[in-house]
Structures are given as structure tokens and as C-alpha cells.
Amino acid sequence: MNAVRGKILIADDDPTVRIVLTKLFEKSGFEVIAAQNGKEAVERLTSDILAVILDLDMPEMNGIGCLRYIRQHMEDISPIMLTANEDISSAVEAMRSGAFDYITKPFNPRKLTALVDKAIATDAQARRLHQVEAELAHAREHEIEMAARIQQTLLMGAPPRNFKGLEIANATIPSHKVDGDFYDFIAVDSQHLDVIVGDVMGKGIASALMGAATKSYFMHVIHESGCAACHSNAYPEPDAIVSGVHAAMIHQMEALETFVTLCYARFDMALRQMRFVDCGHMRTIHYRCQTGDCTLLEGVNMPLGFPETVPFTLHTESFAPGDIFFFYSDGLTEAMTAEGQLFGEERLTALVPKYAAVPPDQIIHRIWKDIVAFSGSETFRDDFTCVVVKITPFRLIPSDSHRAVSAPSEKHGEFSMKFSSDLSELSRIRHFVRDGCIAVFPQLLNEDRISMIELAVTEVVTNIIRHAYGGVSDKPIEISIGFENNALMIEFLDQGKSFDPDRAPPPKFDGSREGGFGLYIISHIADDVVYEKRQNNTNRTLLKIYPGHGPDSDPDV
Amino acid sequence: MEMFSETDGDVVVAVVLADELDADNAKWFKSKMSDIIGNNRKFVLDMGQVRFVDSSGCGALLSALRQISAAGGDLKLANVQKSVQSMFELVRLHRIVEMFDTREAAVKSFG
Lengths: 557, 111
Fold this sequence. Notes:
The structure holds two protein chains of two kinds. Helices cover 39% and strands 24% of the residues of chain A.
């Protein structure tokens, strides 16, 4: 028996039938495995079996049970069922459960072998089809993977680490058909950060490449104007940059019949404002910490790729500590339920204030989870792309903490700021302190009280510059603002000579001496003042202010 | 920061064109005031634009007051903002220098 055509499995509890079938198929060139019941058939099933013949009525596991097992585990095998004449309803059920066909006993041997040949041919075809499908799926996967890789490496820039005054998080989750979403960050200098978010119309590799091209045009224009800026000392504004990119790309985009929506935003830390050019992009959400409200920022410009776009209009939006800017792609608002209901701008806008207190990456994560819960799926039709820029808030120190008031200086950057020992810093310091006080005690401090606190801080810093540092500039003064036990804490750290308040002369109120008022002012505005020398030659001055009190009045004198 | 001055009869009226008078510009302010005062005896300082004065700024004002007093004249302040007024009260400058709501009232007070 050379040239075996393959294995065939038969199962029948009737030994006579088993012998007949074995003989029949061995003659046709098959190797036959004969089982006495469904259970044995299942046990002897191997992946190289080409065809299966099952008796419907068997002990242990009947034909239907065995059939279902096989269909479930070997989808490319369609068993043929043997039935008794009176058992037509079971035969129909078997067909429904995935049998190739059925044949009634007593059977015609030629008919049965023909049926087996047909089943083997059909199954082989199904196998090939599955294989092709798998290859196609693999190829598609490969394309998505490629596009996703383009997206991650070319389209999505990384925000600068530790840009002072801003906390930034970004995320992109590719959909099954990759979009041309892109974003990038450019730290112009220590006071200016540019954020570009955009979306190319269309999907797939073509739009991913277009997105990459747009990004590289931005880099090109910025680089060129940046070089020019070295001479003119003026970095171009967002509208000029977008105009440059538009001029460079318009012909290609018209030829490709595509367009790009984008928002080019510049965060200006010195002026505390964001200047942006919006070209038909999703409306950026601006959450204001002080009021808890959101504004949707919308430009009037057409997307890039429309010839009538020039000139681009620049908008200005001022911001304060704790504010959040939420940039996103349509993948968020156009996520939908199985019934086709869109998530929408309104729902998204409501989520930003809800999560405003958590760190930016958590804001994104929670919004993503909410959208997943809404749409009932973890995969969206469009890319999920968003960038969160939070203006570093002045955080409160937990009031029940045992870390005492030294905490702010140990946790850098969040509510403390370094200044240099120069009198020209005073104005900036007052701004910092004013913002900090408003952030810490938004309702409790009135304008009068804040002016007084600004005054006390000015006096402390002036003393540090004049006396601790002896007028030498460029030395560090670190100021931290915090909250503890209902008191506003303002801490000053310097590295100069330590100060003994007892040796300072008292002020004269008759106008005979100009100086000496600083300490008097400080002690009358703050409820408590602590001077101490710490390790590493650091001096610490601490002002404690209870917002309920007014400044000391002095009815005497 | 700039200063602007004009005369109204025999009264010199100077306007501080700065938002803040602090340790950073007090020295400049002091010498500028000294120049403007010269030998004048009747002097009005319009502080309408100033929203912040620290002890150095007060010191500069006291210095100007001394210079004028030494020549037998007087310095009066006009348009002092509320936050600055609080500061003056804290260091009791309001007991030494007379303040008026308007420039005209200050000029008129010299009689």
C-alpha cells in the first residue's frame, strides 16, 4: 500500500460497519483510523486527517457532539454523517452544525467515496482560502504597523522635559486605519514653547506620509527663520511660520488634492499668554483654573491646502497658573457607540474640568477610559491623538503633613521659583507671589491684602540682595509658596550671609531717616516671621500669613 | 521709568510715569526728584500711575521731602492709589506728607 493518499477517520459503534468502511477506504488508498464511538474519535483526531465519517448514533459521545468538537477545533474539516433512515431530523441538525453532507444506511460505497473525495477537495479549498486571508490580514497588519511606526517616529514629537512653568503630556493610539495626525513641540527659548497639532485629510500610509512632510516643512521654515532671527533678534510669530509652510506646500497639496487642519500655538511664559493660528482644526479646549470654565478656541483660517487661506489670523489667549489647554484630534469627538452616537465636543469639554486636578498624563488616560466606556470598544475608527499643556499650578501643601513648611523647597518647581539676586527681579517676584497667593487663597485674600503681601515680599528680597549678598547679583533666591494650617506660607532661601534681626535698628517715623522700614513692614504684614540658618549655608526666611487677619494697625504713636 | 514736570504758577507739578517705585528704581527716582526740585519750594507729586511703593520708594520720597523742607518749602502728594495709601499708612508717611485726591486740590492747597 504505497502512495497513501492520507488519513481518514471513521467512527461507528457497529463493528461490521467499521470493517466495511475500513476495507472500502483502504482500497481507495487511505490510511483508516477506526473509532468505536465519538469519544474515541475525538481522542484519535490528529491534524493530518483529511476526512471524517461519523455515525450519528453512538454511545459515549454521539455523532453530533463529535461533529461540533471537530468543527470547533479543526475548522477545515467538514465531517460526513452516517444516519439511519428514520433519523432525518438529526441529519438536518448535523448539517446545521457544519457537517459536509449526510448519507443514509445502508449506503452505496461508490456514493460514499465520491462524497469523501468531494469533501476533501472542498476542505482543501477552504484551507487555501483561510491561508490567503491570513496572509492578507498579515499584510494589512504590516501596513498598519508601518503606518503606526511612521506615526510614532515621524509624526509625533516628544515634548521637552522640564520646560519651566508647563506640564505636558501627549498620547496617540493608532486606529485600524492610521490617520495623518501629527504633533510636535519646539522650545524656542526658556520662555517660549511652540506646540503644533495637525491632521491630514484621509487615512493610511499616504496621509501619514503627508503629515510627516508637513511636519518637516515646519521644521524647515522654523529653522530658516530661526537662522534669520539670529541676526534680527526676532523669532517669527506663529502666523508668519504657518504662512511660510503654506507657501512651501500649497502646490503639492493641491496636486495631491489633500488638506491639513492644524493649530500652531505658542506658549509665552513672559506675557502669560498663548498665541495661536488655527486652521480648521478641532477647537482647543482652554480650562481656566480660577473660574472652572472652559473656552473653545477657534480660529477663522481655512485648512492648509486651500489657496485662499492667506493671510493667517493670529489669536491671543491669556492664561494663569493651573489652566489647561487640551488639543485633540477628531478621533476623540467622533468615537461612537455601536448605535452610531458620537461622543462629541460637549462631552469632551465637560471632562477637562472634571480631571483638571490630576497630572496631565492622567487626564489623558481618564478621558481615554471614559471614551472607551462610552463607545464600548478599545479601538476607535480614527486615531486617538491628544496633547495636554497644563500651566504649572501652585500646589497646596497637605495641611495634615508632618513634613512641616520646609516641604515646598524640597519639591522643586511646582510652587517654587528661583530668582537671581538682582533688584530688577523684584517686579517679576511680585507677579509670582501675587499669582501664588491667588492660587492658594482664591477667595480669602482681597486686593488690599495681596498688595501688602507683595510689599512684605519686596522688603524681604531687597534685604536678601542688599545684606545677605551684599549687593552682588546673579546669586540664587528661591521663593516657595504653600499652605499649612490655614496659613499662607512664603519661604525664601538664600546662600548669603545670615541675618540677625536683633541687630537691626528700629525705624524712625519722623522722616529723619530713610531706611529701617523694611523689617518693620515685614513684621507688621506677616503674622509670623522666622529667620533661620540651615545646612549648606542656606538661610531661610519664612513669612506666615493668616488670610483672616488684616495688617496690624497701630493706633499708638 | 520717566518723570514729567511742569509749573502751575509757582508750584512745580511732577508726574511719576511708572507703575512701581521699589528698590530697583528708587535711586533713579531720588536723583531725578532732586534735579526737578532744585530751588523750588512748592512741589506737587502726582502718583496716579503708581500702584506699588516699597520702603526704598518711601525712602526716596522722604529724601525729597527733606530737601524741600530744608529750603523752607513743602511737598504734597496727589492721586495716591489705595494700595499705595495703605503702604504709606503702615509707615506713617501720611502723617508727614499731605495727600490730595486731585492734582488741582494739591496745587490749590499752597494758596
